[in-house]
Design a protein that fits this description.
Structural class: mainly alpha
Distance between the termini: 41 Å
Radius of gyration: 18 Å
Largest sheet: none
Order of helices and strands: HHHHHHHHHHHHH
Strand content: under 5%
Helix content: over 70%
Length: 255
């Protein structure tokens, strides 16, 4: 059970599931939970994919199941990552100083830029799911949360923590190591290739490139990462991962 405490801590941190405290251990278990993020992402993806299969059997067409799948992806984390999207957009698009941007991220109110960013990402994710070919739909849905949680690992080990005080993400950042990102990326690649073949390689590349570019942007803007920018990374990568198979269909039919 002690070995699994970091895993249970990751489940509690990344989802709305609340496990007994004795299962999750103390702060040290939370600090060691980063390596389990992709596993939790895979479990989320498999659960949402099962829900999508049921919804596709219940409803005619693909629009309603796609909407329910997007809602499920939001609900499983309690909207935590979308909150990061809103706060990051409000801060980065404010054209303020670094200190002021960090203050904006801590504000619980959502501004116009945050609302627009959420709407844009959800619209893209929904339209991508509604357009996916039937033969790869389930595999892509499984991979979306896995890619998003892999992005959390890669970004956490790539940037310093931007705040002087502790925050929601500071616990996992304390004990992160470079090899965590390598293991997470390899795990994503293996699962993606097993499910989708060549397209899995493109999804893995898209995940790494998107995370890298956004990390560079965050470094330039605020000097590192916060819990909000991590959440934004997860949502951004999920959206890009949903769009990648469609791009491959358009340019070469790599599916």
């Amino acid at each position: 059970m002690i070995f699994l405490q970091p895993f249970f801590a990751a489940v509690t941190f990344l989802t709305i599931i609340r496990l007994p405290h004795s299962w999750c251990g103390e702060q040290s278990a939370m600090e060691r939970s980063l390596i389990w993020f992709p596993i939790v992402g895979l479990l989320i993806g498999a659960s949402v994919a099962l829900l999508d299969t049921v919804m596709c059997a219940v409803f005619p067409g693909i629009m309603v199941p796609s909407a329910i799948t997007v809602i499920a992806l939001i609900a499983v984390s309690g909207g935590l990552h979308l909150d990061g999207v809103a706060d990051s957009a409000d801060a980065f698009m404010s054209s303020r100083s670094r200190e002021r941007m960090l203050e904006i991220m801590k504000d619980s109110c959502v501004g116009a830029m945050g609302s627009l960013a959420i709407a844009a990402l959800l619209l893209l994710k929904f339209s991508a799911l509604a357009t996916l070919p039937h033969h790869c739909r389930i595999a892509v849905i499984i991979l979306l949360p896995l890619a998003g949680r892999t992005a959390l690992v890669v970004k956490t080990v790539s940037l310093p923590y931007a705040r002087s005080g502790g925050g929601l993400a500071s616990a996992v950042h304390t004990s992160c190591r470079r090899w965590h990102a390598l293991v997470a990326t390899i795990f994503l690649a293996v699962v993606a290739i097993a499910l989708l073949g060549v397209i899995g390689i493109w999804i893995t590349l898209a995940t790494v490139v998107t995370t890298g570019l956004f990390s560079v942007y965050c470094k330039k803007k605020i000097g590192g990462l916060t819990g909000d920018t991590l959440g934004a990374s997860c949502e951004l990568v999920e959206t890009v991962a949903a769009l990648t198979p469609l791009i491959c269909l358009k340019f070469g039919g790599l599916l």
